[in-house]
What does this fold into?
Amino acid sequence: MAQSYEDRILRVLDYIHDNPAGDLSLDRLADVAAMSRFHWHRVFRALTGETCGQSVRRIRLHRAAVALANSDASIEDIAATVGYPNRYSFSRAFTTAYGHAPGAFRAKGQHLPPMALRDPKELSMYDVTLRTEPARRLVTVPHIGPYAEIGRAFEHFSALVNSRNLWPNLGPVMGVYMDAPGEVPEAELRSFAGAEYRGTDTPEGLEPFEIPGGKSAILTFKGPYAGLSAAYDSLFGGWLPQSGETPADEPCYEIYLNDPRSTAPEELLTEIVLPLK
It folds into this structure.
């Protein structure tokens, strides 16, 4: 029975991600879940910690923030692709969530045009510290595709964890990024959304992932996840060449220090961890 409700939640979350400009009303999502509108509302909130409307708004606006930070698309086009009928309604919703109007968000420097070679002086600088990281055993949901779209895997992970009450066995929520963007086609990028696991057997539906730990460079980024690309550029293009350090043959990973469902985007804290030799 529990599996049936998990399937309904995952089906609805997939539908939201696949149809950001479509009909995402409570009635439509209840139809996707194959439950009555009244009961579906209660089930969704109990298993995800959000109402359907809150999830829809958060997913739509996160996709918009990524587009503002990583594309030259017009604000009107971005608004349309995430389901807002005009620039004005989109701007109100975005400003409420992100604390800046869409144009101001883009102008803050989150949006960096692609360049073959960038002068380090043009990179935003962030503090980087060295730390010995512990070995970690994660349970995860794998993701294949653009890293900016890993939110879908995190939604699945959170839904499974909530429905099975696994949070007491979990440590920090983390994302692992296996490939180098630009060297691997976006559609083939591999990543994992999950958390450190303190249980024994891997729960059904989740995949284990081992992080060996060791000497690492830590960049702490404050702000919307859409700005993380600029932080990576700073780490690899600004800090690393001047550090005298050499990366280990291990993937970067991110540690999320607060919850995007209860934290304003400007207050989100993310540690980018670069394993070193």
Observations:
- Residues 111-123 have pLDDT under 50 and may be disordered.
